[in-house]
Amino acid sequence: MSAFTKDRPPDTVPAPAPEPAVGPPRRRLVTRRARPVPGTRIPRGMRGPVAVSLLPGLVLFGTFFLVPFLVLAATAFARWSGLDFAWAGLDNYRQMFGDPVFLKALGNTLFYAAASVFIQVPLGVGVGMVLALRPRGWKTLRTIIFVPFVISGAAYALVFSMFYNPRAGLLNNALGAVGLPGRDWLFDTATARWAVAGTFVFIIGFVVILVMAEIAAIPGELYEAASVDGASTWQQLTRITLPLLRNVIGTAILIRLLVDIGMFDLVFILTAGGPDDATATLALYAYRSYLNGEWGFANAVGSVIIVIGLVLIVAVRRIFRIGERAL
């Protein structure tokens, strides 16, 4: 060390300045205008022709749906017999919910709806999945299963009225052949509701066709991959096919529920709501009110049916996520 540097403090190396913390790159919030989906905007100069083309449909919708709906909603709060009219507030609804026949009709309607949801639709889905495997004679079976669906409800009711006949009906004769007693199935309060439900829960042709069409649209690569991995036919049905049927099962349940809450012709021909209102439905209850000249009260019953239908539509759509893609 030289004399010049003897008393000089050693050079100190300045500590490097701390680097600023590096975080994730900031993103600039950019608001973009939503691009219109191609084909959804009306081209210039075409708005007039498009409006004219929609006009017949709007007129029909307003005439046969919107106007009757508004009349029903308004007259549900009135005492109306077709000629006399007087506002009654909520009296129709108080009378309705205090009537034990209405509660019985509501219970029967929900019972028929439950029979469709828990028996008819699962049975149709199971048969459709089996027929989709194309066993021997599957085309013939599909046709036989679908034929009852195209028969009118009135004709179907007449056929089953003879089937349940206590004296000459096929059911009692079959039971008698094996030593079992018969009974008046349609006019016994213990069996009437079950007998009515038994006439439609086995009409599964519509559900079977829906399921088979949906299964035909499932990509075959999924089943090929599952076969390579060693999946059995049962595993492919339960782990591939059934989950992918979510949309069509929800649709089938929704259609059946909407049909059942308005069920009229089948019950009217079979039992007319008897015995002791054991088979009456909401639609039949409203029909009786119309016959009695209580049009406002009948429309109040109709508004309850509409509300039940809307609740069922929203609930089924959310439970089964109808409309969302499965793949």
Automatic annotation (TrEMBL):
It comes from Promicromonospora sukumoe. Keywords: Cell membrane, Membrane, Transmembrane, Transmembrane helix, Transport. Gene3D superfamilies: MetI-like. This is Raffinose/stachyose/melibiose transport system permease protein. The chain crosses the membrane at residues 50-77, 110-133, 145-164, 194-213, 253-275, 295-316. Residues 106-316 form the ABC transmembrane type-1 domain. Residues 11-23 have a biased composition (Pro residues). Residues 1-10 have a biased composition (Basic and acidic residues). Belongs to the binding-protein-dependent transport system permease family. One of its GO terms (biological process) is transmembrane transport. It is a multi-pass membrane protein. One of its GO terms (cellular component) is plasma membrane. InterPro entries: ABC_transporter_permease (IPR051393), MetI-like (IPR000515), MetI-like_sf (IPR035906). SUPFAM superfamilies: MetI-like. Pfam families: BPD_transp_1. Residues 1-34 are annotated as: Disordered. Residues 25-34 have a biased composition (Basic residues). It is found in: Cell membrane.
